[in-house]
Fold:
Amino acid sequence: MTDEDRTKKIEVQIADTGIGIRPELIPTMFEKFRQGDGSATREYGGTGIGLTIVKSFIQMLGGTVDVKSVVAKGSQFTITIPHLEVEKTESEEKPEVALINKENILVVLIEADAHIARLFKTYLVQDGYNVLALSSGKEALDEITRLNPNIICLNPILPDINGWELLKKIKSHESSLHIPTIIVTVVDNRARGKKLGAADYLIMPVQRNVFLKAIQKNLSRT
Structure:
């Protein structure tokens, strides 16, 4: 790698001195709901989707995640992402014609993972929307009833109640059944989402433009 190439990449290394990972388990550790060792899962807990989400978002940015590990000594994760300077084209510099008045739009974002919630909230706020981010299903149901938002983004993986049951309640309540609800999650269960009344279904990782396009498309239908 030349000096010029090196300046165009950002590299982050994270290391620990933990139990380590056996070499034969490394190829599958980024799969959904997989952990390195059943006994480790029982002792240390965890859902098994953290590394999957990390790798998905890094790949979305055009980067890579590499792992080196020695059993009983620890592991080192290396994240490499490109440092891109985007040049605006003439068309991009022209103001867009807004299809909706975003200043009057309230989006309720229901996401238990704080990092993912922060990312999606940033997308929405930067695009001009008002956003209420919630991590609790019960709280979300109360706020939806109270605020009557314009659109809901829901990840059914919640800590307190079943997110699918939450969607069912949203779509069975007279005050909220009209609100378009977009499912944004790592689990592909489109048939269930459609059956329960979801307006749209996005599989993470979701690129910013795809996410915002889904929001605007479903708002224009209301």
Observations:
- The chain is about 35% helix and 20% strand.
- The first helix runs from residue 3 to 7.
- The chain has two domains: 3-82, 98-220.
